[in-house]
Here is the input.
Amino acid sequence: MMDNKPEECSVCFNDYDDNQLWPRTLPCGHTFCSQCIDNAIKNGQLNCPSCRAQHAATAATQFPISYGMEALIRKLKGIEVAPGVTVPAKPNKTPARGIIKKLRSLVQEQKSSISSLITSCEEVLSQLGEYRGQLGDWKTQHLQLRDRLYALVEQNKSAMKLLELEDTSVVDMTTQGEEGKTQLQAMLGSLDTVNTLQEVDTTIDTADECSMKVEDWLKKCQELFPNAKTVHTSVKVQETIREALEMMTTEIGATADPVHLGDSASSIMNKVQEITGEIPRKQLTVEDLRRMREPVKRLVEAGRVFAVQEDQDGRRSARITLQDGQLYLHPLLRQPTPAHAHTLQESEVVGVLEPSCTLAFLDLGWAGSTRGRVTIRLTPDTPLARQFVLLCTGQRGHTYRNTKLLVVVDKGQPEEYVVGGDYESNDSAGGAPLLPDLQGQYRESGRAGAVWARYRPGGPGSAQFVITTRDLQGGEQWSRVFGDVVSGLDVVRAAVNHSDIREVTVLDCGVVLPL
Here is the structure.
């Protein structure tokens, strides 16, 4: 519906002016006064009061003034404007009599200059606020690094104590060995000087006693030294601290090129970016991940990049990691993101996935540790494959993460396979479908590593999956195949050979980003 009063802000109903109530237009096309825009900005986001579209914003000054709206308002009010003359914000106020035209022009020029300075102040204040946020992030990171350095110092102290204890033990055993050696040498001399049978018997008995002590000492030395824990701890702590010091020395000793901070028009955060080479948190894009330049690579390797999703229940986030040149998107979880994290919308990240090259992964583990990663290439354009991606990424709230492998069928036989995927009850009774229609054209396969649906698509347990571990014999084939293991089949076979398959857990899952 058309606005019957375009000369006033539709939020506060005040007439626009050229002071605090400039008409400013949002990217969605709606116009409001500067004051109402500033009041609507929360946590760097602005929801349009008319259409609720979201815009990144820190101050109203970043949106353009609607000079066309001003002209329309003047026209509606019947104001004639001569070319080059600035109209007062409230034309109904007549200038005081006696003020000459030149003086009035000077006043308007001064007002325009002050308004421009106010705008500049608002822009710089916004930049200072963002810069202060960055400084806060850096302080947090320094505190975390300090704690890690303290931990290294404590590890070094513990290693030193172990070495001191080991050295004390070596000194004690050395003293015992030297005494035993001296006694044996004395026995040699005594045996050379014996003359009677009684002397021989006595000396031999004494020599036997000394020999037994020395043999016991030799055995203890073999058993006690080296202390494996002491040696392992010392070497590992030395390696860790040496690597940290070498990295620090390299960074401090490197000769940096002079940094050109650009002209005075550059914003504070742009200058910070030029100095650090880092990307501001609000500016990281999927395209940056595609290019994977060194600053972005450092962010990902440091665990500072997350995909986020907002819904009616709050915010969820998913880690993005880099391993062996591959980017991995982990499942969405109800977890706080670090204060210094760079975030992307999960929908934008998932949007780069192509069905023809979708790779999913399951990290299997048992007995308290991760045993390996299983990577699965999914058959393009099949509903079961799309459902598998949803359960690996957690886009619909459910995920394979922390689910158990359920049963091994025909263990040791040619048709051996393992079942998993009951995200609901973890006991083979659950695993309801996430998509309304899972019917489709599926492959058949008799090869080891085939991934297929345990039950008929659309049935109660349609989310449960099967991984075959051996080739079928006699030309037989499995149906409802929607993927194949491309790496990690040895991990699946090791899980099958574990004493209790229900102790095997999907510790993590996700997809490979084809960037």
Remarks:
- DSSP finds eleven helices and 18 strands in the chain.
- The chain has a mean pLDDT of 84.
- The first strand starts at residue 23 and ends at 25.
- The radius of gyration is 38 Å.
